[in-house]
């Protein structure tokens, strides 16, 4: 099973105070009066965002959000029957339907559709079987067979790698996941929300998240171009949705706590008491036979209980592992870029309100490519791990150390002024320069260059301060490497 804290990866758009105030122009109101019905072509295979239940009804998060919008606008929804996502798109293209609910904007779709502002953001992850023990990027899939589903928005992005990746298509998400589980393909790309929901529903216990790609689904409403006046109207309703309303729709379909029933001690005692009472009543006639039966039943119950407890432990372990995969760099154990950005979203406003200093350190190993080329990638990995240990040992519990990518690291140091940040950076530089790694009969040494940027009042933004620290790092490189340069704002 796959367990994911999905509220971490589904970013909600900001909403004003109340949905009771949707300021429509006279032209917009007139347009709604002229279009009291909207035909929707749904995706039957995109759970939990949109799918058909056992009665063939469209359900899911996106349907709930759309239903809310249409209730506000007093528009009647008319469903056009569909059996695949591709058929839903074909209906829009042919003009036999008006609206798609779970659309991502692509160059091809822009030719005949108009899109609302996104209402959900869904990162795309790399799914593999659980025999992979390292974090993957898209480049790691070169030469492998990657499966996706016909009509998915990420397919247009993947076409630029068609000469490097063997891309195959499935008719549904379930079919693609089952082929991956059975070993017919090497990997699959899917948004994290659908991956968690479908893998649990299909009981595919041998699949895992092994990385992510630089692509994010931005789910939006899409209408045929001739119905484009509906888009600004929908945008106004989405913007006026009350705080927490969208969260309620998500929580209805996605639960952070995946419950599993197991008998309580009381229930177990009651069951044993009932069995014992029945056994006592029949003891005179069936003592020997019943004794054997009860023994067998108890053993079977114990085995089932043990299996149940084992499955629960495995699920908890998988949940912990998945959280680590989402927020932790696989090689060094440091926080990854996603974790850093999440921490920034919390720390930066606090620093701004309190007018407290904050420093950013951008670090880059010097001549790292030469190390890899001369001694091999195993030594390169040891250099990265050794550097990561030094960074962790040289910082405080309130600081955040993250691997930014490749041989680059970023340190965020709250409550840290310019002088203290320089002191920390110099201490790190000296420790790295003094480190020696054994290779055959040689000792390998390496150095690091550091750029420091400090703000005393929470301004400028994190992105701007990160860029300034990168400029300072460039100065260190230009001045001969193995040094610290700084810029204070």
Automatic annotation (TrEMBL):
The chain crosses the membrane at residues 269-290. Residues 1-19 form the signal peptide. Residues 356-489 form the GGDEF domain. It comes from the Bacteria. GO terms for biological process: cell adhesion involved in single-species biofilm formation; negative regulation of bacterial-type flagellum-dependent cell motility. It catalyses: 2 GTP = 3',3'-c-di-GMP + 2 diphosphate. Pfam families: GGDEF, SBP_bac_3. Residues 291-321 form a coiled coil. Its cofactor is Mg(2+). Its EC number is 2.7.7.65. Keywords: Coiled coil, Membrane, Signal, Transmembrane, Transmembrane helix. This is diguanylate cyclase.
